């Protein structure tokens, strides 16, 4: 797990982006945790029945499941604690810091990432019960959003940063219904992000 970056004390926008990233990670940890919990319950049930019937049963599968479950729970607890800390800091910042204009790349980036956030939400909704390949695609897009928000606080985005978005946009072309909506949102996001100054222009 990567260490939590320390946001600037007078930057509520950075706090908000970090909070969003932590909540996304918490949601993904829950997605990973639930199948392990289901498997642990199944193995516990089998072990209980075997014990009641007086037959020998191997407890190692359940012990392994519980170890994995504890690991997921520890990670989830850490992520939730980080989110709670960021939420408290954000509330303090919003209540005590006067209105200000963020630096140009951050301000433009936050606006540009709104369509991307909507596209990923649409994509996840469309494939939540669909093929695993598309679900993995949605997770990859979500991870890319987190990466772009963090990168944008350090420097303007480059063509290399945006290349995975172009690939995702192309893969969704011509798809029906909600997937086409995600394609359209991604198009808006790419147009907004491409309007940012490149790293070469900034230098």
Task: Name the descriptors.
203 residues, mainly alpha, 2 domains, flat, disordered N terminus
Number of domains: 2
Compute the average pLDDT.
Answer: 72
The end-to-end span amounts to 32 Å
Number of helices: 7
Number of strands: 0
Apparent shape: flat
Folded structure, characterized:
Helix 1 packs antiparallel against helix 4 (132-152). With 203 residues, this protein is mainly α. It has helices at residues 12-52, 60-96, 104-127, 132-152, 159-171, 177-194, 199-202. The chain has seven helices and no strands. The two termini are 32 Å apart. Helix content is 78%, strand content 0%. The longest helix is centred in the first third of the chain and has 41 residues, at 12-52. The chain has two domains: 1-100; 102-197.
Secondary structure: elements and pairs:
Blueprint: H1 12-52, H2 60-96, H3 104-127, H4 132-152, H5 159-171, H6 177-194, H7 199-202
In short:
The chain has 203 residues and is mostly helical. It has helices at residues 12-52, 60-96, 104-127, 132-152, 159-171, 177-194, 199-202.
């Amino acid at each position: 797990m990567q260490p939590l970056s320390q946001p600037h004390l007078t930057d509520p926008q950075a706090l908000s982006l970090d909070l969003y990233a932590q909540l996304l990670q918490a949601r993904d940890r829950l997605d990973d945790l639930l199948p392990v919990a289901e498997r642990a319950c199944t193995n516990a049930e089998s072990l209980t029945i075997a014990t009641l019937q007086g037959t020998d049963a191997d407890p190692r599968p359940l012990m392994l499941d519980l170890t994995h479950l504890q690991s997921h729970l520890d990670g989830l607890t850490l992520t939730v604690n980080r989110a709670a800390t960021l939420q408290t800091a954000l509330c303090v910042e919003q209540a005590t810091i006067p209105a200000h204009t963020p630096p140009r790349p951050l301000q433009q980036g936050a606006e540009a990432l709104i369509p991307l956030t909507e596209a990923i939400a649409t994509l996840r909704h469309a494939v939540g019960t669909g093929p695993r390949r598309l679900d993995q695609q949605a997770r990859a897009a979500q991870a890319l959003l987190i990466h772009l928000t963090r990168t944008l606080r350090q420097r303007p985005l480059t063509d290399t940063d945006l290349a995975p978005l172009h690939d995702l946009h192309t893969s969704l072309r011509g798809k029906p219904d909600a997937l086409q909506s995600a394609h359209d949102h991604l198009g808006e996001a790419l147009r907004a992000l491409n309007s940012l100054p490149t790293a070469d222009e900034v230098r």
